[in-house]
Amino acid sequence: MVLLQTLIDQSRQPTGRLGRLMLRIMNSSHRSLVSLGLSKLHPCKSILDVSCGGGNAVFQMAQSGKFEHIYGIDFSQDAVALTTAWNKKYKFKEACCN
Questions:
Q1: Residues 17-65: pLDDT tens digits?
Q2: Cα 23 → chain centroid
Q3: How far apart are CA 29 and CA 22, in angstroms?
Q4: What is the pLDDT of residues 75-86, one digit of tens each?
Q5: N or C terminus: which one in the chain shows less Cβ crowding within 10 Å?
Q6: What is the rounded average pLDDT of the residues 8-21?
Q7: Percent of the chain as helix, strand, coil, to the nearest 5
């Protein structure tokens, strides 16, 4: 029961080594869902990814070329750090809200 609660907590606010692993798992497992969602969106000037996690959705948004400005926010500092690193070539600016 303790392990399950730990995994649930890490999926809510990833921190530390286990949190970074969870973020990478989320990046991989959410890829097709993000692709489907992006296929339904029309190009626009700005888009916001709330709870940006490991940064894969921000990356896919940048790759799509549909958006001029892409923003990502997350409660987890580790998530923001991974998103920033994942999207470094897009000059993603780190921001976190705690």
A1: 999 999 999 999 999 999 999 999 999 999 999 988 889 999 999 999 9
A2: 8
A3: 10
A4: 898 898 888 888
A5: N
A6: 90
A7: 60, 15, 30
**From the centroid of its chain, how far is CA 1?**
28
CA 54/CA 68 separation, integer angstroms:
21
- N residues, the chain: 98
**Pairwise CA distance, residues 56 & 95, whole Å:** 16
DSSP category for residue 93: P
User: 62, 84, 86, 64: which is closest to 73 by C-alpha?
Assistant: 84
Domains belonging to the chain, first-starting first, are 2-90 (3.40.50.150)
Dihedral (CA of 42, 68, 29, 80) sign? negative
Question: Residue 7 and residue 72: Cα distance in Å, rounded?
Answer: 23
CA 89 – CA 38 distance, rounded (Å): 20
Tokens, residue 25: 């798992």
